[in-house]
Design goal:
Elements lengths: L7 H25 L3 H20 L4 H23 L7 H25 L7 H19 L5
């Protein structure tokens, strides 16, 4: 299951995280007198390089930081490729985050309908998880840009 399931606290936490990311990028844009999109572009370069270095190490914290960078980088790349002229607008910035939170919630609901009994074998659990992944790909994969 994606993130072991879903509850409203998780959804609020994800949104709060990305609202903080937006505020930080907006502040950096103002401080450095750069367009919001340019700050996003530079952050992608930095996060990609940092994640590459972190992958060489081992440990839970490093793995979690790589995952966090992957989430933020995916959002920034999507925003930059969207062509939206007002990326600094919080509603524009949060649009994909809202979609992600809904995807986590809906995948939990789908999984609940198709979850094997709790005493199932690992093979049955893997097969069920694969079906959830396939369903998510059909529901949420975007067409190449």
């Amino acid at each position: 299951m994606i993130v072991c399931g879903y509850n409203e606290q998780m959804g609020r936490g994800l949104k709060l995280l990305f609202e903080g990311v937006h505020a930080t990028i907006l502040e950096r844009s103002r401080r450095d007198e750069l367009p919001f999109s340019e700050v996003l572009r530079r952050e992608i370069i930095e996060m990609t390089r940092i994640s590459g270095a972190l992958k060489a190490g081992q440990g839970c914290t490093l793995s979690m930081l790589v995952g966090l960078n992957a989430m933020v980088t995916a959002l920034f790349e999507d925003l930059l490729s969207s062509g939206d002229p007002d990326l600094a607008d919080e509603a524009v910035f949060m649009k994909e985050v809202d979609k992600m939170v809904i995807a986590v919630m809906e995948s939990d609901q789908y999984n609940a309908l198709h979850r094997p009994p709790s005493k199932s074998s690992d093979t049955i659990i893997e097969r069920s998880a694969g079906a959830v992944g396939e369903w998510m790909m059909k529901e949420y994969a975007s067409a190449p840009k």
